[in-house]
């Protein structure tokens, strides 16, 4: 049996090529634990639902604001076009004459009185009359009268194909220099004619406030519908989610119960198989070994040396088989774990590993193995057994340290070897077909609610760490 005691040193993970030891990776009980083992949390589920609903509300709210603004602007443009059309037919064209088209000051003054009394209002802030050549025939801003500006494509098209056009005004244009103090304006223009057939372009500028008011009205309406819909959806969804949560919780409880029963059944079956092998084939082989050895002795006494030699070899083979079967019995169900305790069982594992070429050193803190409850003793034994098997398989003749200590309310088992190591991240992400060692360890630890971490890298050895909450037996 390998030496034990608190004075044994625990080798640290070997440094990598860059001088940095391999990082710990959670195999089970940490971030890599299977999702279906995580306990269901109704409060977290409801909060996620609420946050999701709020996210949808924000997205829909932003979309509603954009949609309402666009719809309100389109409606305001249509309203402004209708107002301009009515004013052009009822007020402007009856007041036009050739003198006004020619720029006669008296005619301009007369039209100015009509414009200020019947056209300008709190919503209509500018009135202009254009000639087809871009000359401002009339404007309620006197400084614009007589100036010439290039007509844009839409204005030219309105004159060429008589239509009413409305749009958000571009206040950066030169003819809008006196409107730039305004926040935002709508401009509407349509052609008009004097009694003599002279064509002019009638243009008005309206405030943008009706667009904002209409957008606010539409947004309030959409918000009401949206909030009501989301509330109804939430009210209808919560009972369904609650029922699903209850079903999932029942399934999880059933799964955990089945897992516990499966583990218990497995332990019982291992105990039964071990007892059957010990009381049956092993005892029969022991008897056969004695019988063959006795036959070899009688053959030698009768002078038949060749037969005696053959029977001796047969007896040795039977004894070797008995030894192998007894080692297998210890692997299947270690009797020392239930009779002599965990420390003795770990010593047996160390001795078996030593027979396979490993150099095993035990470092067991005084009183810790005996203080663990039975289920944690079995877990420590199983994890140590699997780690030593892996070391014997992949790191023959390696030095291995098995340490068991308790601190800060937790029990920690570490199995460290100085073998060739492996790429832990790759193995955990994509285990090779038929290689179940790491997966078995992870499932075994997860079933007991403990945590298993691994630190390994090619050429840097392997280090396993099992952490369990300390419980008294």
Keywords:
Heat Shock Protein 90; 12 helices; rod-shaped; Beta-Lactamase; five-stranded antiparallel β-sheet; alpha+beta; 473 residues
Give an overview in words.
By secondary structure, this protein is α+β, with helices and mostly antiparallel strands. Among the domains are: 1-33 and 341-473, Heat Shock Protein 90 (2-Layer Sandwich), CATH 3.30.565.10; 52-207, 2-Layer Sandwich (Beta-Lactamase). It is 56% helix and 16% strand. It has 12 helices and 11 strands. Mean pLDDT is 79; it is low at 1-18 and 30-37.
The 3D shape can be described as rod-shaped
CATH homologous superfamily label of the domain at 1-33 and 341-473: Histidine kinase-like ATPase, C-terminal domain
Q: Residue share in helices?
A: 55-70%
Please state how the strands of the largest beta sheet are arranged side by side.
1-10-11-9-8-7
Q: What is the alpha-carbon Rg in Å? A: 47 Å
According to CATH, what is the topology of the domain at 1-33 and 341-473?
Heat Shock Protein 90
* Poorly predicted runs: 1-18, 30-37
Structural class: alpha+beta
- The name of the CATH architecture of the domain at 1-33 and 341-473 is 2-Layer Sandwich
Q: For the record, what CATH class of the domain at 1-33 and 341-473 applies?
A: Alpha Beta
% residues in beta strands: 15-25%
Main sheet: strands, sense, barrel: 6 strands, mixed
Rounded average pLDDT: 79
Count of helical regions: 12
Topology order in helix (H) and strand (E) letters: EHHHEEHEEEHHHHEHHEEHHEE
Q: What's the total count of β strands?
A: 11
Distance between the termini: 26 Å
């Amino acid at each position: 049996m390998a030496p034990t005691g608190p004075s044994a040193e625990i080798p640290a993970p070997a440094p990598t090529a860059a001088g940095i030891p391999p990082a710990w990776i959670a195999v089970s009980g940490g971030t890599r634990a299977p999702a279906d083992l995580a306990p269901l949390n109704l409060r977290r589920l409801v909060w996620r639902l609420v946050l999701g609903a709020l996210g949808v509300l924000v997205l829909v709210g932003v979309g509603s604001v954009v949609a309402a603004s666009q719809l309100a602007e389109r409606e305001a443009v249509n309203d402004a076009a209708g107002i301009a059309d009515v004013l052009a037919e009822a007020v402007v064209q009856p007041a036009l004459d050739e003198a006004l088209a020619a720029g006669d000051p008296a005619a301009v003054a007369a039209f100015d009185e009509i414009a200020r009394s019947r056209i300008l209002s709190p919503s209509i802030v500018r009135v202009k009359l254009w000639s087809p050549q871009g000359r401002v025939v009339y404007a309620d801003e006197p400084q614009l009268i007589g100036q010439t500006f290039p007509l844009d494509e839409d204005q030219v098209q309105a004159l060429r194909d008589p239509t009413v056009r409305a749009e958000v005004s571009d206040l950066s244009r030169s003819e809008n220099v006196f409107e730039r103090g305004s926040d935002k304006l709508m401009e509407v223009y349509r052609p008009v004619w004097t009694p003599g057939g002279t064509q002019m372009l009638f243009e008005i500028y309206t405030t943008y406030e009706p667009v904002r008011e209409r957008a606010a009205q539409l947004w309030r309406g959409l918000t009401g519908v949206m909030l009501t819909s989301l509330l109804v959806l939430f009210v209808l969804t919560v009972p369904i989610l609650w029922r699903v949560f209850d079903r999932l919780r029942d399934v999880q409880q059933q799964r955990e119960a089945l897992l516990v029963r499966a583990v218990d059944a497995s332990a019982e079956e291992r105990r039964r198989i071990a007892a059957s092998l010990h009381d049956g084939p092993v005892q029969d082989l022991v008897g056969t070994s004695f019988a063959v050895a006795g036959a070899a002795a009688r053959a030698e006494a009768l002078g038949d040396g060749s037969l005696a030699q053959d029977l001796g070899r047969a007896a040795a083979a039977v004894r070797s088989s008995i030894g192998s079967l007894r080692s297998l019995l210890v692997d299947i169900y270690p009797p020392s774990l239930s009779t002599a305790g965990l420390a003795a069982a770990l010593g047996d594992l160390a001795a078996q590993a030593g027979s396979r070429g490993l150099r095993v050193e035990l470092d067991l803190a005084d009183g810790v193995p005996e203080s663990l409850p039975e289920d944690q003793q079995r877990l420590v034994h199983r994890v140590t057994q699997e780690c030593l098997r892996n070391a014997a398989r992949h790191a023959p003749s390696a030095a291995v340290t098995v340490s068991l200590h308790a601190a800060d309310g937790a029990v920690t088992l570490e199995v460290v070897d100085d073998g060739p190591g492996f790429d832990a991240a790759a193995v955990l992400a994509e285990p090779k077909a038929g290689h179940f060692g790491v997966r078995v360890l992870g499932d075994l630890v997860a079933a007991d609610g403990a945590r298993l971490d691994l630190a390994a890298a090619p050429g840097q050895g392997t280090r396993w760490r099992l952490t369990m909450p300390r419980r008294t037996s």
